[in-house]
Amino acid sequence: MPQVSERLAALSPSETLAMSQKSDELKAQGIDVINLSVGEPDFFTPDLIKAAAKKAIDENFSFYSPVPGYLSLRKAIANKLKRDNGLDYSPAQIVCSNGAKQAVCNVLLSIVGAGDEVIVPAPYWVSYVEMVKLAEGTNVIVTAGIDQNFKITPQQLEAAITSKTKALILCSPSNPSGSVYSHDELQGLAEILAKYPNITVISDEIYEHINYIGKHASIAQFEAIRDRVVIVNGVSKAYAMTGWRLGWIAAPQWIAAACIKLQGQYTSGPNSIAQKAAEAAYTGSQECVETMRQAFERRRNLMIDLASGIPGLKVNHPEGAFYLFPDCSAYIGRSYKGKRIEHSADLAMYLLEEGHVAAVGGLAFGAPDCIRFSYAAADEQLIEAMERVKAALARLD
Ligand code: PMP
Ligand code: GLU
After folding, report:
1. Residues near 134 by Cβ (< 8 Å), separated by ≥ 6?
2. Which residues, in sequence order, are CB contacts of 353 under 8 Å at separation 6+?
3. What gap in Å lies between CA 211 and CA 319, rounded to an integer?
4. Is 16 in the pocket of ligand 2 (CB under 6 A)?
5. Which residue among 12, 17, 207 has the greatest number of ligand 2 atoms within 8 angstroms of its CB, and so is best to mutate?
């Protein structure tokens, strides 16, 4: 009997996408579900970006692009890195892919092999640990709970480093916690990393612009480790372009070359029209980014208020991204109609089936006591959703 490979059998499906799909299935049955599971802006792609894509079609950008993306896009990204982050990169150090998701996976497949360890701070975005498994590496999870605002300390980082450590995956602003590392906190981590020259830092900055503490800080800004940092970013979140599938890395030359070789064999350059749209996003007016950021900040404040009014939820004050990640451990071990809630994934399923609100249990993010609500939804929906959550939680025995 033919079977999938061991590599595939060991892989878990994406919980964020799975919960969203379940929510869609219930909606298709006519049930009024509020979907706060998948993390994507609810805004439409700004008009100037859509116009650039239409123009690209008319101008026949219909051929294969270079594998790392058009030079004009990579120049626009290099200019963005200078403008927004004060960092100097040449277009040759930039590789564009089918979303930041592929960008992270490319890097891991390029540098991690059997026996290599990758330090992944928890809570983590679901896909990191699965990608490390795909690369046949070993995940070394470093846990930071809500009591430390979900951020690891330099001491925790150093304690996790061994002679086999190949990479650290850092995500700030963070999915799923919304936590943001300050400049000083990053400096503390960078000082440790400076002592270990074999470690590459994969710095996922896809939520860069969805930041409520002012300026974004990147760990690539620290000279001592700069040549070992790979910045991952893309247009999905900042420009409401999740479906366009365009992400990128800014990397040391040897990692960029490795990703180009890899991508050249299994996907080629990303979609040509999406590339022209992304170029317009980076070179055009940035007003839309700030408008959306302000809306997310308002909703963040609303969600903190709403969730704080639900007995038993422990809520912190996320400083970025569009997720609230309360500790819901007070409800673990409770039951409904005789069925016990064993962990946060069970709780998320209960909220979906009985409360008609889709969220994602923290188990998939390495934080089984927490639950993730994406607040990239209209204010009225957020209010209604949290009322439903409150009522459903109150029904638990
Ligand atoms: N990194 C993080 C932390 C994310 O939340 C996402 C969202 N899907 C991605 C990477 C991938 O983004 P995309 O592939 O849409 O560019
Ligand atoms: N990153 C988003 C999320 O965490 C999109 C879904 C995904 O790609 O996992 O919900």
Report:
1. 7, 11, 105, 108, 109
2. none
3. 6
4. yes
5. 17
Handedness of CA 279, 283, 284, 288 (dihedral sign): positive
Tokens 């960029």 appear where?
256
Peptide bond into 154 cis (omega under 30): no
Cis peptide before 270 (omega within 30 of 0): no
Ligand having the closest approach to the CA of 97? 1
Whole-model pTM? 0.96
Please write the tens of the pLDDT for every residue from 319-360. Answer: 999 999 999 999 999 999 888 999 999 999 999 999 999 999
Ligand with minimal distance to 16 CA: 2
Alpha helix (H) ranges present in 13-70? 15-28, 47-58
- All domains in the chain, ordered by first residue: 6-44+288-394 (3.90.1150.10), 49-283 (3.40.640.10)
pLDDT, tens digit, 9 for 90 and up, residues 17-46: 888 888 999 999 999 999 999 899 999 999
**Cβ(323)–Cβ(334) under 8 Å?**
no
Sign of the torsion formed by the C-alpha atoms of 309, 310, 314 and 317: negative
Considering only CA atoms, which of 316, 317, 364, 299 is closest in space to residue 128?
A: 364
Q: How far apart (Å, rounded) are the C-alpha atoms in residues 72 and 282?
A: 11
**Nearest 5 degrees, angle CA 50-CA 268-CA 254?**
110
Residue-by-residue DSSP string for 162-210: -TTEEEEEEESSPTTT-----HHHHHHHHHHHTT-TTPEEEEE-TTTTS
Picking from 202, 199, 115, 217, the residue whose alpha carbon sits closest to that of residue 160 is: 199
Residue 216 to residue 173: CA distance in whole angstroms: 8
Quote the CA–CA distance of 60 and 261 in Å, as a whole number.
Answer: 26
Cβ neighbours of residue 59 closer than 8 Å, sequence gap 6 or more: none
Ligand 2 closest atom vs CA 126: 9
Q: Cα–Cα distance between 137 and 68 in angstroms, integer?
A: 25
| CB of 341 closer than 8 Å to CB of 347 | yes
Q: Does residue 376 have its Cβ closer than 6 Å to ligand 2? A: no
